[in-house]
Design goal:
With 263 residues, the protein is α+β, with helices and mostly antiparallel strands. It has a single domain, classed as NADH Oxidase, CATH 3.40.109.10. It is built from 7 helices and 6 strands. It has helices spanning 28-31, 53-63, 96-107, 128-134, 173-190, 203-210, 235-240, and strands spanning 6-10, 46-50, 118-123, 150-157, 194-198, 216-225. Strands 3-4-6-5 form a 4-stranded antiparallel β-sheet, with helices on both faces. Helix 3 (96-107) packs across helix 5.
Length: 263
């Protein structure tokens, strides 16, 4: 990471915690059985260690109650430690080489027939692309997205020509862009960064501002950065990082037989 040669690491025995908040109506059944895990206070001396990727991921897992969650504890890194932060340090910037590394992660995602139907717009604070994006953000996203170190806006190559009746460029373009985005977000976690994907912006207005041709369709944004001070953001944004993270149980969406034969 740019500007981070070493990290001050408290010599603690804690590994991770899971702070459950009150579940909403969609999550009550899934969280009823989950035990709370507490992290003892750290009182050990601070040690400075080289900030390699493994250390960075280990530190993130040790100090964030959001990850890993039950059923994710045995996943490989960086999936185990990935979560979508909303409070970013607006003074942090990524170097060009780091941004390029993130894009290389997307570049090497698989795609149907190696069609690679993705397009990524890079929006760095202080640039014209960033201004174009910020002007189109929804109210809910306008408070946190601009604070990220970089935002990528994804688009899919959906038609082979500009005319409305042009055949599809790829029947799996949206799926493939999703894979490229997932690769980028996991690479971000491996680099000690956080990634938060979003879709709350005026797609038509931003497509026009970016000059997106009719052959492509804007999809989502991916905000990348490092954690910031919750006191510097509004209460609603700060609260986002403490919402309960819950996933549907496998039995709701896995089928080993017919659709009408749940697992």
């Amino acid at each position: 990471m740019a500007g981070v040669g070493s990290l001050a690491v408290p010599d603690c025995g804690a590994s991770s915690s899971d702070a459950d908040s009150a579940p909403d109506r969609h999550t009550a059944s899934a969280t009823a059985h989950r035990p709370a895990r507490a992290v003892p206070p750290c009182t050990g001396p601070v040690k400075h260690r080289p900030a390699g990727p493994d250390l960075v991921i280990g530190i993130l897992a040790a100090v964030t109650p959001q990850a890993p969650q039950p059923s994710a504890e045995h996943l490989a890194e960086p999936m185990r430690s990935r979560w979508s932060a909303s409070v970013y340090d607006d003074a942090h910037r990524l170097g060009d080489d780091e941004i390029e590394t993130l894009l290389h992660a997307a570049q090497w995602a698989p795609s149907a027939g190696n069609s690679q139907p993705w397009l990524f717009f890079v929006c760095v604070p202080g640039t014209a692309n960033h201004d174009r994006l910020v002007a189109t953000l929804s109210r809910g996203n306008s408070g946190w997205v601009p604070r990220a170190s970089v935002v990528f806006v994804t688009a899919a190559h959906v038609r082979s020509g500009d005319e409305p009746e042009a055949p599809a460029f790829s029947d799996y373009a949206l799926y493939d862009v999703g894979q490229a985005a997932a690769h980028l977000t996991l690479q971000a976690t491996a680099m000690g960064l956080h990634a938060h994907q979003f879709a709350g912006f005026d797609h038509d207005a931003l497509a026009d501002a970016l000059g997106v041709p009719a052959t492509h369709r804007l999809l989502t944004g991916i905000a990348i950065g490092v954690p910031g001070d919750p006191a510097q953001v509004d209460e609603r944004t700060a609260a986002r990082d403490h919402r309960d993270r819950v996933r549907k149980p496998l039995g709701e969406w896995v089928r080993h037989g017919r659709y009408d034969e749940p697992a």
